[in-house]
Amino acid sequence: MSPRQACLQCLQRDPPALFEAALWIAAEHDEQLQPANLLADLHALQLQVSAGLPALPARELAQPLLRRLAELDYQEDDESVTRPRHALLHEVLRRRRGQPLSLALIALELARRLDIPLQGVNFPGHFMLRVPGADHLLDPCGGRRLYTRDCREQLYRQQGAGVELSAVHLQTADAAAMLQRLSRNLRQLHLQHDDPMAALKDAERVLQLGPPNLADHLARADVYQQLDCPQGERYDLERALLFCEEEGLRLQLSQRLRNLQRAPAVH
Questions:
Q1: Alpha-carbon torsion 131, 135, 136, 137, what sign?
Q2: What is the dotted CATH code of the domain comprising 175-260?
Q3: pTM surpassing 0.70?
């Protein structure tokens, strides 16, 4: 079974094996990675975290869990340039540095093992966590509580003052949505670091993990363009046109397709 197949199979379990699936995503980019070994190694971290938690009801332990991870030096990476290793879960576990989503995936797995209620929230630009029913979010990077005003300010920083906070920004993310976001992050990071073959793996996975959309087909078309694969680029441009409602963009995509008409379909 390929790492991709193993990842998708993890989502078929009840409940989905989110953490293991994320490890299989990493295994697509590192042939030496053995997810089963990392799953076993995580038990040691679970013991470290558990030993530092206060004697409180499980519902009150999510923030202490995140603070405990921070005490153990699991932090948001502060390097000036974000790299794929900041999103690949095995590298985050090794270095104790990563993107908010990767740190959240570790926290969610520990919470699951310790019976602490915790959910992912697909907040724009900075993945968040939440205790079900709570009136605030939790930053996976240290456990800070974020109330409505804090979320609004965070959204302004990410998308500008013209964007209004809405329920869409605070939606709970299921396992497939989190893995799709992880795959989009990796797609972007691999492209930024001149690795289009790795980015293609991520772009394909994005489209397998959720309903297709305009942006994801355009992103894969751009990857195919870098790989000089006109047949693949043409396929995704045609699919993007099916989703596109903006006339100006439709004209651009149509022109791009015309430019590909005489390109040989050799891939």
A1: positive
A2: 1.25.40.10
A3: yes
